[in-house]
């Protein structure tokens, strides 16, 4: 179980942007409702999701309606690493301040201000993910902990190969082993970065400069392998844009922002939330009650898919009149169970769900393939095909013992509940 967390109080950070060179201020506010990490710039709200990413050559940039926020990866990494799932990030400027080039100033502040929201979730990777481009690759495997292994290799005599394995990244491990690692740059690459219009705010105060003779920065490195630790910092910040906390074994080699974000998109497709949606959670979300609540547990949930369970017993009231000598669950009730699973999927996507009702407006291409009897367990799966302006189309199925029992396409609308 992963507890959702926010901040106890508003935190303020100010500094120079690494690439723009301009001053900016960031205010991190406690979340008043569970909405994930959300950036706010002026009147524009920008969710910290992959859809908002615009460019990734040397940093990760979010953009919506013409408003841009640059270099979000260090802040996102600190939020993810310290377990903060819900926060409003108010940005006054063009870029997140570079601070000292690491995530340490953010992480230290979060350590003192993190509080539980009282809600929980459990993220599970259901299948391996692998992304490769030339010699760079990212592999994500199902795991019980967040584990990272990173191999860094350059054709450079000073920084040829570095490797680090962290078997279980907790907030304490993140703060000690990852957060202090600063961004770095080869001295020979500085002209290329400047020609691209980047690095205008870079200095020895926020960037480790690697030369043929060694480290230019006074005081040297914070870790002998600080570069590979910073690569892990960036990796976690980019993968945090899947929008939910997760557990996985991550293997990366020579990867950067561009590959990380491709991996994040594939990760999100295979990442499911489950284990925390019991009947008590369902009763809080759904308006149905006996004898018409037809789902018992949510096994998995993400933005596009839900998997639910309906346990069928002879004590169901409908068996008294529906073929009592050869009890078969009515097909229309199986469709209703599928619809309720789909309703849970849609309610997961909206705010103020307690004030919403789901009305189904259409049922298409329904097929009944086998009877459902007492003792069966229905595995209900609903996938979102379309969702816009509170209207949705959902592909739903019900399986028994791995065999498809019912399938169909459901159309629905979310409406305001009557007062």
CATH architecture of the largest domain: 2-Layer Sandwich
Q: Percent helix among the residues?
A: 10-25%
The structural class is: alpha+beta
Stretches where pLDDT is under 50 for at least 5 consecutive residues are: none
Number of strands: 26
What would you call the shape?
A: elongated
Strand content: 35-45%
How many helices does DSSP assign? 8
Q: What is the radius of gyration? A: 25 Å
Number of domains: 2
Determine the CATH topology of the largest domain.
Answer: Ribosomal Protein S5, domain 2
- Through-space gap between termini: 35 Å
Average pLDDT level: 89
The biggest beta sheet is recorded as: 6 strands, antiparallel
Strand order of the largest sheet: 21-22-24-25-26-23
Which CATH class of the largest domain applies here?
A: Alpha Beta
CATH superfamily of the largest domain: lpxc deacetylase, domain 1
What does this structure look like?
This protein is of the alpha+beta class. The protein is built from 8 helices and 26 strands. It has helices spanning 73-81, 104-113, 171-178, 190-195, 226-239, 257-270, 279-285, 331-347, and strands at residues 2-7, 11-16, 23-30, 37-41, 44-47, 53-55, 61-64, 67-69, 87-92, 114-121, 123-125, 129-133, 136-141, 147-153, 161-166, 184-186, 208-211, 214-215, 249-253, 271-273, 297-301, 305-311, 356-368, 377-388, 391-400, 403-416. The strands form 7 sheets. The chain has a 6-stranded antiparallel β-sheet with strand order 21-22-24-25-26-23, covered by helices on one side. The protein has a 5-stranded mixed β-sheet with strand order 2-3-9-4-5, with no helix packed on it. The mean pLDDT is 89.
